[in-house]
Write the structure tokens for this entry.
Amino acid sequence: MRQPPGPFREQFWRSPLRGPWLASILGSALLPLIVICALTGFLSQAAYNPSLGDNSPLPGGGIGINLYFFSWPTSPSWIYALTQGLHVISGVMAIPLLLVKLWAAMPKLFEWPPFRSLARSLERASLVLLVGGSIFVFFTGLGNIQIWYPWSFSFVPAHYYAAFIFLGALALHVTLKLPVVRRAFREEGVVRPLRDDRAHTRAEPAEHGTTAPVEPAPPTMSRRTLLATVAAGSAGLGVMAAAPVIGGPIRELALLAPRGQSLGDGPNDFQVNQTAKAAAIRPAQTGPDWRLVLEGAQRVELSREELISMPHCTHDLTIGCVEGWSTTQSWTGVRLRELASLAGAPKGSDVEVVSLQRGDGFNHAVLSSGQIADDRSLLAFKVNGADLSLDHGYPARVIVPGAPGVHCTKWVKSMTFSQA
Amino acid sequence: MTRMRELYGSSQLHLLAVIVTMSFALYGTIRIAQGSDALNTFIWFGGAIVAHDLISFPLYSGLNLIAHRSLVGPLGGPTAERAVPLINYVRVPTILSGFALITWFPLILGLTEHNYRMKSGLNPDIFLGRWLLLTGALFLGSALIYAVRLRRATRSAASRESA
């Protein structure tokens, strides 16, 4: 087959910075971020207690076997804020590294001839999955945290199963490239090329089958300037992504990340996942006719006044959102345990909490017996000493330490206790 | 072993690694295929490759080449050695601003305006302005560093001449 012109010829690629060492250092920086992102991503699925009811955001319960041999813990109360915060922060920080890694590897995608051996062809096919998978997973994740859905598929299964494609291809890539990384670090040193300024920057030795250029152009940038730029980008984006997780005065540093703005100083002026307007909650539903329906061995209906007259307590608890922001407030409410015993729920019951909200996948959630048993799990009616605002779930909402935000159901209508 | 190499092109370990890792990738592919809107998912998956490799990469490489031609000279040709080459003082803030844009473009470009306002109750109109300010600050910082370094280089050149 005749070699086509342009990028399919080795001479096309002129940058003196490309080569095994640059790819190795970028890969070594990228891999830990992707590992953190992947682990916390799979943990997020566990946090939904996917084996209970239809909690699993994946159709058919996901993988089909329960990979998570544990019930999601309630302590520390900020555990989901932490794991999901890490998921979003590590993912966002990986973006500059990923883009420059793709730039560094670009000649590989145009390697000619396309078919040399079965092994090489399989490797190249896996690179297609690696490039497509990485961009797809990062792009959909970024869309979700910014509430932007230009596609028609549903986010969670696509993001989750594409991660299998991406991580499978990545595992192969890392396995096959490990000797290349070792060799590059042995020959060039792990950090030695960072000492060279622009004038001393030399192309890595051109060798067939590597990305080092055969006809390098004179350097206009040193490797350390390139890597410092990537590091600065990664750190800057990391600060922006971390600010809405840490909250407090730090939140303002979010700058371009979602959920960086303060809503004010009032007791209810903290981040709202979904406003009452967006959830189509009508005022009539939350008026004096509102009743909380508890179902267990018996059915109990409580007005808001009756709920408030029950023994209650106050706890500082964190709501962590899957979108990677969180907020810690002081919640006052009745223990879920008390409500369970009021309804005569059998010991070890789970509870399905249903919202007044209609038609959203998260208008209901099943909480585990472990979550009900925690002293700090509340059906809250007050926050920071004031009545809940409509946006925060008035007349009453669930708050469970460590649970994903969407499991802290707002505008609660009914709670049905049953033994699993 | 040699026959394996001839037929396959690498060792058995290579093949084993391919089988193990690609079975995970295949699993993900099959689950997507079984889901609703599988076609749309695969279109976006393929689109991701096209958008990066055939659109975004040629685009930014082209921009870089234009910057190179106008600030340094033709690629590979003789370069006018300057005391402090200007190009990286343009490139670095452009790259950093680009990282921010590519990460937060749905908010910056207002693509998510309705959703963001409805769901969070927050004002989505601040992001474009903030990104422009950030970009301006990056270029300003870069220009200041350039000015300081240029002055220093001119001075030391002048002192060498007078010495």
Q: What stands out?
A: Chain B touches chain A through 70 residues (CB under 8 Å). Helices of chain B lie at 2-8, 12-34, 38-71, 87-108, 113-120, 127-162. The longest helix of chain B spans residues 127-162. DSSP finds six helices and no strands in chain B.
